[in-house]
Amino acid sequence: MTDRRSEDPEYSAISRRRLVKYAGVGATLAAASPLLGAGPAAADDDEAELKSGQSGNSRHRVWRAGDHHVHSEYSGSFDTSTNPPKFIKGGDAVYPIVTNAIMAKNFGLSWVMCTDHGGPTHSKVNLEQAYPDLLRSRVLVPEVLQFWGMEFDAPALDHHTLMIPHHRDEAQQLFELESRFAKRDAFPNDPGRDTEAKMVEFLKAAKDMPRKPLVIAHHTSRSATGLGVYGQDTPREFRNGNNAAPEIYVGFEGAPGHQAGPLVGEARGAYGNHPTYGGFDQMTARVGGLWDSLLGEGRRWWITATSDSHVHWTRGGSDFWPGEYSKTWVLARQDYADIMDGLRNGRIWVGTGDLITGLDLTAGNSGKRAAMGESITVSSRGRTDVDIEIRFRPLVGKNGNGDRPEVRRVDLIVGQITGPSASLDTDTNPTTKVVSRFGPRDWRRQGKDYVIRHTLRNVEADCYARVRGTSTDEAEPLADGLESPWDDLWFYSNPVFVKVR
């Protein structure tokens, strides 16, 4: 796809002075940061091979890394002593949109999205100020697909990604949704916007749009006070939202941003009340927990991993650059629509610290196979075995910390699909178990990949399978303290589904 506005002379004929200005941002950062240039984009031969298939209108789907939760200087503050409120750029995050795109490219990302905070009348700031800067950034860094959207002030909930499809009227589409439904956009404040009913109304309005956006929950347990003691975001709200718009409201961050917190003496992920586990939210990390509960209902509910980048940890923040530590990998062409399709349909795996650079999970039976986000139907007659294949690709070169991480273990996790829970508040799936753990002696090298094969015997009921892996020797991810995040790396797949008929 091509953004017709980016072809307009106003944007394509950018002055040499402006090009130098924006290029200088990246050059200055490169000179200032010892990490820059050390990431996979510079050192990983596999990444270079991956990039080679991304030019033009290639129809070939490969794993493409991205980040859908990044902040720019348009995450600002507001002076509400005036009417209308005055927007103050850089009040919370400080980098220009193009700087984030430059850094995303440097750390091997193919796609990225600025998700700036809202506020009173912020919908006009997005439309009139931020969007023109996004168009310029698309011209300056064309190698990275740059989505339009925001960190939506979700009614009754914590923040969410609101990703808008790439099309000519994308700016107007976001303006309509933000101005009508974002709980902080109204001025004066309107308490009626901060209700669960308003959230469901928003999702139904989004579902009825001809070009359907995506909504993904952010840092879902950041306000939780204990394990299974939730804060702003609850199992009931996720279920009600997904019921209202299953093709719009599709998941949550498995690994939240702010992962560099321990490097500056702060909690990983900014989870100050109850910690993350191996960098992952408790809703994802606990086997048989909320994520498995949702999957056990047959829901297509996916996890992602993001930077939530505001300010880099070497410059007073608690963040990594987009792609420096966390990546969301989507099986797609280098095309806006196909990447959104991959996110919508679960062709996703996530990882931290570039522990691996490729992951495939398939389930097979009688010559049929299904991959992440897909379903395979098997016969219930006779003995029904399902063959699982896990294929992962180790990092070649060094990660953003200059390390060469190694996978120490891979876990295969299986749970039954039993249908809707009796209670909307259910947050466990007692059928979900780690059915097998694999170490280096259990995988075999095939070309650039390692391959693990396992057979699920006598499958009698609908189920799903997912995998995770780690650089640690922890049987289950432990609650995070102030250890370096680079010493605690994990990857997670999204599930493949098995239907027994």
UniProtKB/TrEMBL annotation:
Q: Matching PROSITE patterns, A to Z?
A: TAT
Task: Name the SUPFAM superfamilies on file.
Answer: PHP domain-like (SSF89550)
Q: Where is this region: Disordered?
A: 37-61
The entry's protein name is Phosphoesterase
